[in-house]
Amino acid sequence: SQGTNLVHNVTAGQYRTVSHINQHEVVVDGPLHLFGEDTAPAPGEIVLSGLGGCLAVGITACATWKEVKLSKLEIFLEGDIGNPAAWGAGGAEKLPAEMGFQQVRVKVLIEGNASREKLDEIVKHANLFSPVANSIRNPIGLNISLMD
Asked: Which run of H or E residues covers position 109?
């Protein structure tokens, strides 16, 4: 099945924004070295957080499906991101392909009543079927335009 996620993002400071998502809010800011005020995670960190959350849901669901009881699940994510000076506003020297995540590494700390091989199989399955991992891994359509 296909659904649509809706987010309404509102500026609330220099680079601070609040995303309204159903009845929830997610706050984003820029780090000091990119002229933000560092009051909240940076946008790229939120992307990694979304990936980690999606993988955790998938791993837990797959483990349940395979009748494996997990006693620990922690996900550590690192993303090498190209940030141009002032995002191109001051004439960035980077090309668009050099911006954004260039490499993402994820390590899963998982324990449960199954062999390491079985746990690895569960993690690989979750990776393969993760909507967020696939959004990062595969080119997708993106349309950004002014409101009517």
From this structure: strand 100-112
